[in-house]
Backbone:
């Protein structure tokens, strides 16, 4: 199990570098657009579209990293108000439900790529399945990271408590 987790974490390191490069490229493109539009009075025709597609990829590649690092938005009050064993079961059940969603997203995203494959973007003229490819790629990465989270829960003796748990404990002490 640890080998699988290490393999997924290695993929995440590469994805993290890609997300950083996308953010840098997006920033440069947006700054170039600002200078082009306001200083040279000649806006770039392609910059908004490229920035938009880069943002989509950044979100779909960044979400799996957030999932793996337990940084996704969650309502933790219920999970933190039960015992450690019940918390572990609840978090694994949540990840299993998430896996079902990621599989649906993967299949539907793949179907969408086929539907929009003949369309082309307005400014760049690229096939629209290139921007839509972010959906199944992100879903596959989220699926892998959900598996890593479950394996981590199964191999650890305890599930870490969050800030919510600390607040609840302080409230009980008062």
Residues:
């Amino acid at each position: 199990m640890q080998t699988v987790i290490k393999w997924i974490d290695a993929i995440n390191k590469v994805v993290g570098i890609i997300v950083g490069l996308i953010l840098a490229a997006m920033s440069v493109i947006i700054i170039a657009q600002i200078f082009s539009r306001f200083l040279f009075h000649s806006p770039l025709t392609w910059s908004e579209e490229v920035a938009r597609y880069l943002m989509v990829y950044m979100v779909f590649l960044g979400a799996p990293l957030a999932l793996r690092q337990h940084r996704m938005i969650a309502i933790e009050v219920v999970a933190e108000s039960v015992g450690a064993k019940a918390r572990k079961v609840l978090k694994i059940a949540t990840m299993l439900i998430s896996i079902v969603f990621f599989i649906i997203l993967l299949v539907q995203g793949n179907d969408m790529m086929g539907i929009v494959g003949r369309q082309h973007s307005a400014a760049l003229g690229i096939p629209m399945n290139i921007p839509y490819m972010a959906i199944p790629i992100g879903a596959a990465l989220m699926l892998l990271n959900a598996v890593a989270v479950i394996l981590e829960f199964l191999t650890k003796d305890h599930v870490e408590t969050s800030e919510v748990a600390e607040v609840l404990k302080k409230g009980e002490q008062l």
